[in-house]
Amino acid sequence: MNFDLTPLFRTSVGFDRMAQLLDQANRIDQTPSYPPYNIESIDDNNYLITLALAGFSDEDLTITSEQNTLTVKGKKDSEVQGKFIHRGIANRSFERRFQLADHVKVRAANMNNGLLHIELEREIPEAMKPKNIAIGTQQKTLDQKPEIVKENKDVA
C-alpha cells in the first residue's frame, strides 16, 4: 500500500526530514537484518543501542555520527581460514544506519563480549526547555481600562 503525501508537503514548510523518514519507513522490507540489534530506552533522555557482532574486534568497526544519522560499519577480511563443515557465524562486512532525532548525541561506544554498546543522550537546548511563567498579582476590575500614554511631540 502506497500513500501519496504530495498534498501534505505542498502546504508545509520545514518538514523535509519527516518526508525522508516516511520514505524510509515505506522501504522497510528492504532493510538488512544483519547484524541483529536492540534499542533500549534507559530513561527519558538516554538510550542504548546494542549490536551483536560476534567475531568483530574494535579495529574492524567504524562508528560515524553525521547530522541525524548514526552509521556503524564493520569490515572483515574475506580470507577464510580453515575448512568449515558448517559456517553459521557471519564473517561479512556490514553497514547499519540509525536515524537519530534532533538533539540526540552519541555519548560513548564500547565493545564487550561480542556486543557493541552505543550510548545516546538527548540534549535539549535551554531555549527549547519548558519554562514556568509567573502569574502577576495585580488586580483589575472590569470597569478599568488600560491607560494610553500619549507622547507630546514639539514641532520646531
TrEMBL record:
Domain SHSP: 28-138
Keyword Glycosyltransferase among record annotations: no
Species in which this protein is naturally found: Marinicella litoralis
Protein name per Swiss-Prot or TrEMBL: Molecular chaperone IbpA
InterPro entries: A-crystallin/Hsp20_dom, ACD_IbpA/B, HSP20-like_chaperone
Superkingdom in the source lineage: Bacteria
UniProt record similarity statement: Belongs to the small heat shock protein (HSP20) family.
Keyword field: Stress response
CDD domains assigned to the protein according to its UniProt record, in alphabetical order: ACD_IbpA-B_like (cd06470)
